[in-house]
Design goal:
A hairpin with a 6-residue loop joins strand 16 and strand 17. The protein is globular. The chain has two domains: 377 residues, Kelch-type beta propeller (Neuraminidase, 6 Propeller), CATH 2.120.10.80; 98 residues, Jelly Rolls. Strands 7, 8, 9, 12 and 13 form a five-stranded antiparallel β-sheet that branches. With 487 residues, it is mostly beta strands. It comes from Thermococcus pacificus. InterPro entries: Quinoprotein_ADH-like_sf, UCP016666, WD40/YVTN_repeat-like_dom_sf. Pfam families: DUF2139.
Length: 487
């Protein structure tokens, strides 16, 4: 692969904090991605290394900013369809606000044979502070030869839309906000809910042949314990099942096969550590995605909402690249603040990363605040031993979650590790329950084992456990912490 060294320091791009490299897609000899918040779409002919860039000025006047922050991309025949949102032109105010009058949701198409870009569809409500639902996912319907658009992030025109890929005519199919979807057999599954309030609340399934919709509620957790706020980050399909990657774990199953979409707890820290603003791809028959440590965050503490700052800025561990091949879940990479996009190309895995998160409405800057790059890995990392990683969690966070009816934390995948341990530092005596399970299909039940812990330092050897383990303390712990080390 004769590609340039893709490293992007922050440049002009008014928005909230940092965007990233999104939509990585290799198709018909062309590698595409969008750099946000600079609003630059890149198209690289991998054979000649010739690169073209597009600044989204088919939407409006320069200077543009934004681009895509959810990996909205699809390929059909010789075309790459890419969506998202763009300010055209961008208007930044010195009171750290950006105006949204010129914010557009969009779908463009790149012809890989002609090397040309066309605007297929756009939408805007031209409001100073509100915006039309961003395009956060694009799914091709091969039966109807159309594009299905998921739209959740915004104030109007949310839901699932059908887009004619020839005329650019869009039609709303449902109006409930939907950030992501995936196609399974002859059905398209979509997650329904708002990621910045309650998270995923249900699944809608569209029969691509008949056009009928069905609704399914998320299932129970395999560890038998409650879960809260499953914000939806990515969806994918494999084994004739739908997989929804959410804050705190994974939903997997297929109600049309008689299975509910069961919840498998994974990296549940009661922070915003989540598989958010990243995609999931099929690799080797399984699924590859990432759980991110710092994708969205409150920059300035708000005395009226101290939990908001703590939950988004408490860094519990590295961002991890995760390979799902049921019943196995394996960590295959460890990265910094966040992974924004993943793709396969010529025996390599392309992993786009960013050193900084998105921020909030009153925390805009006239430039992107992150350092972004593309890391190349050999596909063989899927078959190798996992990297050494560690996680450190203040136990006050699951303690506060107990007040909301939850409190079980973790979901650490042990596959591939020879040594693993949990080090608890407690302010008082407590009892710990360890739940052991795997990502078996259909879902099984966890086994549980309890341990008596004393005030001070306690070392729990996890080498006798396998699969995935989650933890629950009997009494809330307000001052202690736990460190989980996987080697």
């Amino acid at each position: 692969m004769l590609l340039p060294n893709y490293r992007f320091p922050g440049r002009y791009g008014p928005e909230w904090g940092s965007g990233g490299i999104f939509g990585l897609r290799y198709h018909n000899g062309t590698l595409y991605f969008t750099l946000a918040f600079e609003a630059e779409a890149h198209f690289i002919d991998v054979r000649s290394c010739e690169e073209k860039t597009y600044d989204f000025t088919l939407l409006g006047e320069a200077p543009t900013s934004g681009g895509d922050t959810y990996n909205a991309v699809e390929t059909v025949d010789g075309f790459i369809y890419f969506g998202g949102w763009v300010h055209a032109p961008a208007v930044y105010r010195e009171d750290r606000r950006i105006l949204f009058n010129n914010k557009y949701s969009h779908v463009h198409v790149y012809d890989t044979e002609e090397g040309s870009v066309k605007l297929l569809w756009k939408d805007s409500i031209h409001h100073e502070t509100d915006w039309a639902g961003e395009v956060s996912d694009i799914i091709y319907d091969p039966y109807g030869d159309r594009l299905l658009l998921a739209r959740e992030d915004g104030h109007a025109n949310l839901g699932v839309y059908s887009l004619d890929r020839r005329t650019g005519r869009a039609e709303a199919l449902i109006h409930e906000p939907s950030p992501k979807g995936t196609r399974v057999h002859d059905t398209a599954f979509f997650g329904i809910g708002n990621n910045f309030t309650e998270g995923l609340r249900e699944f809608r399934a569209l029969d691509l042949i008949s056009g009928r919709w069905e609704t399914f509620k998320p299932g129970e957790s395999v560890d038998g314990r409650p879960y809260i706020r499953p914000e939806l980050g990515a969806m994918a399909s494999s084994y004739n099942r739908a997989f929804a990657f959410v804050r705190g774990g994974i939903f997997a199953g297929n109600p049309f096969m008689g299975e509910e979409l069961s919840f498998y707890r994974l990296f549940d820290f009661y922070t915003f550590y989540a598989p958010f603003r990243v995609n999931a791809i099929n690799a080797g028959g399984g699924i590859l995605t990432a759980f991110n440590a710092h994708h969205d965050a409150v920059y300035r503490p708000d005395p009226s909402d101290p939990r908001g700052w703590a939950s988004t800025n408490t860094i519990t561990g590295p961002s991890v690249l995760v390979y799902v091949a049921p019943p196995m879940v394996k960590i295959v990479g460890a990265f910094g603040a966040r992974v924004t996009s993943i793709e396969k190309m010529n025996g390599k895995l392309l992993v786009a990363t960013n050193s900084a998160p998105n921020t909030g409405a009153r925390e805009a800057t006239p430039f992107d605040t992150g350092n972004r790059d593309i890391v190349l890995l050999d596909e063989k990392v899927l078959q190798e031993r996992p990297p050494a990683v560690s996680f450190s969690l203040p136990l006050a966070l699951p303690g506060m979650a107990k007040e909301l009816g939850a409190g079980t934390f973790g979901g650490f995948p042990l596959d591939g590790y020879r040594e693993s341990r949990a080090v608890f530092h407690l302010s008082g005596d407590n009892r710990l329950t360890v739940y052991e399970y795997d990502l078996s299909l259909p879902a099984g039940e966890a086994t549980a084992e309890t341990f008596e812990l004393k005030a001070g330092k306690n070392i729990l050897d996890l080498s006798s456990f396998s699969g995935i383990v989650s933890f629950e303390l009997e009494k809330p712990e307000k001052r202690g912490k736990v460190r989980v080390e996987l080697r």
